[in-house]
Amino acid sequence: MSDTGTAIYEAFTSKNVVDSNLEEANLVDTTDRIGIATELLANAITPYGLDRGTDATGGVVMSLTEAVMGVSSALVQIADAIAGLKEGSDG
Questions:
Q1: N or C: which end of the chain has fewer CB within 10 A?
Q2: Per-residue pLDDT tens for 40-81?
Q3: How many domains does the chain contain in total?
Q4: Is a pLDDT exceeding 80 seen at residue 34?
Q5: SS3 assignment, position 26
Q6: What is residue 14's three-state secondary structure?
Q7: Contacts of 44 (CB under 8 A, 6+ apart)
């Protein structure tokens, strides 16, 4: 193999990462892993093929982000209610 060929081969393989056959991972292996990770991330945010969910107030929830926003909104409402109790007792 030429010096150029060796350089390209070494650039696209890794002795630190192995593939499913426990051989040095190459560009195809790492690209495949990136694709799988991207799909897992996408399904964590908006599960593929699942119907929309609803939260306690009847709002539509289609993603993990929306669910977290709903929880933070509920926490703000709880804090406001506690503040309202304190204001009522000051009078």
A1: C
A2: 776 666 656 666 777 767 777 777 777 777 778 888 888 888
A3: 2
A4: yes
A5: strand
A6: strand
A7: 64
Residue 18's contacts (CB-CB under 8 Å, 6 or more residues apart) are 24, 25
Residues whose CB falls within 8 Å of the CB of residue 39, separated by 6 or more in sequence, listed in order = none
- Tokens representing 33 are 């892993």
The answer to whether residues 40 and 2 belong to one domain is yes
Joined tokens for residue 71: 């929880």
Distance CA 46, CA 67 (A): 11
Task: From residue 87, give the alpha-carbon distance in Å to each of 3, 4, 42, 50.
Answer: 78, 76, 44, 44
Name the one residue in this structure whose structure tokens are 């630190």: 16
Q: Are residues 8 and 41 in the same domain?
A: yes
Q: Do residue 23 and residue 58 come from a single domain?
A: no
Portion of the chain with pLDDT greater than 90, in percent: 0
